[in-house]
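Q: Here's a chain of 249 amino acids. Please give me its 3D structure as tokens.
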Amino acid sequence: MIKVAVCGSEGKMGKEVVQAVIAESQTELAAKIDIAGNDTYKTIEEASKAKKIDVLIDFTQPKSIFENAKYCLTHGIKIVIGTTGLSDEQIEELRRLSKENNTGCFIAPNFSTGAVLMMMFAKQAAKYFDNAEIIELHHNQKKDAPSGTAIKTALMMSEANDNFKKGNCPETETIKGARGGESYAGIQIHSVRMPGYIASQEVLFGSSGQLFKIRHDSMDRKCYMAGVLLATKHVFEKNDFIYGLENIL
């Protein structure tokens, strides 16, 4: 039985994770960690001193995830990270700490199998198109932009093609940010924040005479739970560093 702690247990995603861990036959809820709630530990340190924790699942906030992960990896607690907002430099630091401390770390910008397939298909399409942009749409309580899914998608696409602005004319923005943010290989990412959305992303490819679109929409947070549990079991058994659910599908 894998003893699991959920950090951010009182948030919308955290509550879904708690229920998924309880319902899964191979996992046991060891602790809930959140500054809110009457039955929660307030810090990872407090929980780890009171309970045995094999794997911690983190769905907190961008401002706290890096320190949370460093604490886990230096105290022998394997971690599954669903919180987005980590920089490339921070991810590399966690990779180093994971290997140095022989403690598993699994980071996934998105745990939905459909979203991961979208990223994989986008990487395949990137071989055949020289122009591409990404539009990501989330609820208006999401604090980081662009989304981790959009960043990971652009990174994967850039591995197949190093320039997605071929043939573009010189551009001038009359309103700053109108063209979105430029990411890997010149891919522009546009972030929309609006009540009513949970998480959606569209990858647009273009070439002379044709357009190609790949889109994924999350309608319910339950769609992430199978991926979260898959990552939890993997990091418990394999004890390695993984960035992206596509690496174990």
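Q: Can you summarize the key feature?
A: The radius of gyration is 19 Å.
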